[in-house]
Amino acid sequence: MPFVAAPYAPVGRAAGAISGLFIVQAMKRALAGFTLMDLLTTLAVLGILVAVGIPSFSSVVRNNRITAHTNELVTALTYARSEAMKRGDVVTTCPSTDGEFCAGSNDWSTGWIVFVDSDPNGARAAEEERLQVWPAIEDVLQLVSDPLQFVQYTSTGLTMPVITDQTFELMQPGYDDELARCIRLGNTGRVFSERNTCP
Question: Model-level pTM?
Answer without folding.
Answer: 0.71
